[in-house]
Amino acid sequence: MNGRKVTVTYCDEFGVWPLVANDLSSRLPLKNLQWHPSSQRSERFIPSLEVDLQRFNFEQVPQPLLSAHTTYLNLYFVNCDDNDVYKNKVKKQIKTWVDLIATKKNQEWLIVYVAGQDTKRTNNYLGLKTTVFDKIRADFNQGKRDRCSYIRIVDSDGPSSDLWAAFIEKMKESILASFDMQVLQIQEDTRRLDMQRHMPGWNYCTFFILKEGLAQAFEIMTLYEDALIQYDELEASFFQVLRDKALAWFGHFGATDAGDDCGNILDFKRKDYRDLINKNIISVFDFRCYLFARQTRMLLKLQRIIEVCKRGQLFISSFIPAIRENEDVLVDNFLESWVFSACMNIVNECEPLSTNLIAADPNFIIVYSAVKADLLLTARRQLDKLGIKYKHLPVTEPFSIYLDSKVENINNDEIKSPPAKSKGSMTNEKLLEAINSVEAFDKMYMALSTRGIKSYDACYRPRAALTVHGDIAALKYIRDKLDEAVRIFESMIWRYDEQDWGSIENSLLVKCADSQKRLGKTDQFIESLLTLLKNAKWLSKEDATLYMEELLSNVYKLDVDIRRAFSPMFGITVVSIIDEQSAVESSSVEIFIENHLPKSLHCDKLCLRLVGNNPEQIWFDSSDLDLAPGKNKIHLTSKTSTSGNYVVEACEMYVGKLVFTHNFMKDGQKKRILRLNHDMNRLQATVSQPDQICLGERQQLAVHINTGKTRISNGKVLLESQMEGFSILKTDKVQAVIQASSGDNENNSKTLELDMLETGEIVLPTCEPEQNLQLLVAYEGSYTEFEYRLKTTVTYDSEGKQREFISAHSIHVTVPLVVTETSIFRETCVFLKVDVSCNGDHPVRILESKLKPSKIYAVENSSAVEKWDLTLFPKQAATFVYKLVKRDNIDHDLKPKVRFYAKYRTLKDEVEASIGTMLEKKLAQHHVTQHFTYVFSKVKEAFLSSVDYVSYGLTDVVHLDAFDAELCESFLLNRDLKTKVELLDLIEEFFEEHEAITVRTIKDNAPKPRTNAILFPLEVPTSKVLHTAELVLTDPEKDLLVSEACPCTLRIKQSSDWSLENNDTDNEFYYDIDVDYDNWLLSGKRRLRFISKPGEVFEFPVDLVPLKTGNLLLPAVRVSAISANVSAATVYVNSAQQVLVRAKSKTATFFVEQQQRFLQPQNTTAYAAQDISTPS
């Protein structure tokens, strides 16, 4: 049987086959067949069906028992135009052929009438059918089935002929009908035979052949999926027989024929398997191989090569136990040879098909490479077994992983080569070559491993690829190709580290470390030892100790630093900050280092890095430590003193050039925040507004440095701005005052000039313990800012170590007082009135005030009281008056302007200083003074910002807000629990004790509070046009009577004391008499313009008429300049002078018309400015 095509026979008794053969062949294969099964199967579509045309044989050839026939259709070609010939001869020939076909099962037939080109298909006249074709149809058509077709020898329509199309359609219908009948028959026979399974005499092989006939029928019709189902059902029934141990139909296990160990398991024609099955003499081995080959054929037809590989892997692995059970009757190494050959057969069969499938779908290569790689690796593992058996490989991992259990405990010395011909030898030539030659073995080993790696890489299975890489490296290692082995080991070990495959990693590391040691690669050797120790849980205690000793003996031979993570060799825990002066000399971080190694380790240096704002990072460290196995408590100190919240970032431990690191800020890990305080025993620096400032001059900052309990040298201080618009000015020298902190006596202080370097650093002098140093540093900043941010860094040497102090400051620059001045000129002096008020909402205590002279003015007279205790409230003003006289000679040692000096203290500073002192004492009683600076800053911000200082100034009592535990706890979050609870209790207790604080308590707790002073430069003119005006009565002895005119003279003189020297400029002025018309009438010029020079006197006559009796104030007189550029002042001699006006002895009544106040004077010139006149 062909097994691939449907057979169609043709009977040609009229010699027309040569005339139609080409036309028929050109229309094959048949296309687009639709099979509608008579059973309950769904419809099947056959896109293409190959047809094998064979001449019909009238001789009855007997078919083998249970063989599946492939003849589905028989064609009879007839060519006859004569009705008589048809009737007498042709009809009998056709009937004989039809009767013969009827004796064959499930075969269809068609009569094909072949007509000439001009022959008419039918000749109907009056309903009579007269053509031969019509007679054939009438004689042989049965029922509705039309078994006759009509074609022409040479059809004028060509390939699109309807006659041929109809003929082809009938061929397809007939083939499908025959196929359907055959399927129904086989299914019925199979069902009947299967129901007899438990009856005596039932034969599985007969059942197999019968059911396989159905599978082959499907295969012939290209229904490969249906065929595969039949073979899968046969496989399931075989396993059922296997479970029932009813293997009577199989003579023996088999696998004893020549070539069985290396035969192609996909070749179902390698043996006459069906004949063996028919004869019930097939072996289990041959039967399973044949069944798998048939299944594989269907899958390959369906182009499901991935499933071929998967089924192949499953078939091989499931068949191995059965082969192993029968190894005693098989040739040597049969199992290894068969598995190797089977894997390679499957791969080689699928490889050509995969090329087209990959071209159609690029993603196909991923899945295919995965199953192919597994088959290649299975084949390669057989080399491992053979290599160990024939001493090409040692009995060590990774070669011994897949050895049989009975071989695993055999040592290399006990392995003996088997006799050459004990039970026969395997026949796989490649394997025979490999076991006879180490070079051939290695070549094959490398080739298979390389193919497997490429396939694993293509399917993105890096772990599997790493395993094969390790096998290659191990092979290089045992062949003493150490350079190649190390290169491979090093390229793959780090990947196992990432994937946490410790046991596999160690097996590679042992060989890698040995290779590196033998090659003298110390750095790489150390790295391998470190990785082994990292995986110490996979090592024995003896091995771990050995590697530890190797590490310690080689760690100082390193050329470069090697960095490794703490875990899992070490564990680290940051406990807390210890800054109690009674517990430690300097602030420390307490940590626990847990040593998981089996031996103590000497650590040269241990460092902990904290990150924050200022500075961005700070290191705590300790040196020369011995870490015993288990937990080790360590205190780390820092050369940097700073304050703020810092996050624990990393830890580094140095052992020679070996550095162990730990990152505390990994993703998903909770941050550990520590609150650092400045070290109380070391140098501390603060920056603030100076105690005394002078407005109008370049401003300065006061830097206060306390040396602490140690002597310092080589000190430098650097101030850095932390905001825009604010900068520290660079000068050559910086003023400084140094004094002991034990007293305030000025005799203990010393003034110095310190150098400022180009970098902005100020060089500090050598200072003894407990000394205070104050520096005044000039700065430049925006006048709109009242708070500047500054970073202070002090570097110095102390006790033979270099240390530094770093702090970030917010400096509040405030001027709590506002001063306005008024100058009142007289002929020989100036009276200066100074008004002082609060600049803000907080009251200020004025403690002292005075006016400092300038180089032009001397202070001749001032208040006798200079020491005050005056509380100035907002919206209040205090006035101070000073008499100034012009110096005869200019004193160039004095400032150009007079300066008002005010010494003060704000009530806010007074209260905060006292509360701070009390709180510090409270903390000192419990030995937590180190937290005072931070705690008090937060207390001021949270609780003292709402204090009513106006009420305190009025009542001398401060009322504090109620304690808020939740608010207080919020700024103690980053403390350890013990410290947080203790501070919280102390602050709460403090507020309970001091709900109301009297001024007496405040003064007692701050007996010497800090005071501030401000020098306000005041602008007092040095020159001015001063006129002295005097209203002189003509007869001062005469009594003034009401309603009588009193002649007067207005005398005006320009003073020469306040005029500019060599000033000959003529300036225009005008006088203005301010008349109260309720008391006086004025006769004369009330306002008049004149030109005046220094020393010149003018007299203007006017008459005054009093309107009332009694003491009347004389009218005021003011002299002003016409030009706005001339500053003029007036000294009016008669200011506030009263004259007595008496009544007349006689009475009289006057009727006075309303006078015009402004009349244009006669014979006067009109000025461009304003006209000035008096009423007439």
From TrEMBL:
Q: Where is the DUF7076 domain?
A: 557-664
Identify the residues that the record assigns to the TRAPPC10/Trs130 N-terminal domain, covering every copy: 2-309
Statement: the UniProt record of this protein carries the keyword Membrane = no
| Protein species of origin | Circinella minor
Entry keyword set: Golgi apparatus, Transport
Q: Where is the Trs130 NTS domain?
A: 421-520
Record's Gene Ontology CC terms? cytosol; TRAPPII protein complex
Q: Which Pfam families match?
A: DUF7076, DUF7077, NTS_TR130, TRAPPC10, TRAPPC10_1st
Q: List, for all copies, the residue spans of the domain called DUF7077.
A: 681-812
Q: Where in the cell is it found?
A: Golgi apparatus
Domain (TRAPPC10/Trs130 C-terminal) spans: 1017-1137
Domain of life according to the entry: Eukaryota
This one is known as Trafficking protein particle complex subunit 10
